[in-house]
Amino acid sequence: MTTPYDADNIFAQILDGRIPSSPVDETPDTLSFADINPQAPVHHLVIPKGPYADLTSFAENASDKELAEWVRGLARAATSAGIAQSGYRVVVNCGADSHQEVPHLHGHVLGGHPLGPILTRRD
Ligand code: AMP
Q1: How far apart are the C-alpha atoms of 26 and 5, rounded to whole Å?
Q2: Which ligand 1 atom sits closest to the C-alpha of 45?
Q3: What is the full per-residue pLDDT of the chain (123 aa) written as tens digits?
Q4: Residue 93: CB within 6 Å of ligand 1?
Q5: Any idea what DSSP says for residue 53?
Q6: Which of 37, 42, 58 is nearest to 113 (CA)?
Q7: What is the Å distance from ligand 1's center to 1 Cα?
Q8: How far, in Å, is the centroid of ligand 1 from the Cα of 117?
Q9: Which of 21, 40, 113, 122 fits 33 for a cystine, CB–CB 3.0-4.6 Å?
């Protein structure tokens, strides 16, 4: 089922200029900008410009062009930041259990030093 889209979420406000961001890349379908609370030396967010609350909604509703451009934007964020060779991680939180905080699809592109294991076990 598609998650309803909140047109006042913080990334919607970045897209329409209501609040500022630090853009690093833009295409007709995507915007990339620095995370305001970086968790690694490089921490960029790549978002589609369309109204997609999460990855499930995006996969179900976006055009093939939007899907392709977002994936290319993720890789380009790493390349342009100079971490494609050293390695990087892409994180997409989707829904409550993932701790998704902003209900507009975003891929975190993280790198610039060794990132360690992807998750810490809870048990
Ligand atoms: P998530 O928990 O996957 O929803 O991640 C949301 C991310 O958005 C967090 O890493 C925040 O630091 C980041 N964030 C929130 N507000 C802003 C903002 N105004 N500009 C840039 N990044 C933001």
Answers
A1: 22
A2: 22
A3: 577 899 999 999 999 999 998 899 999 999 999 999 999 999 999 999 999 999 999 999 999 999 999 999 999 999 999 999 999 999 999 999 999 999 999 999 999 999 999 887 777
A4: yes
A5: -
A6: 42
A7: 24
A8: 22
A9: 21
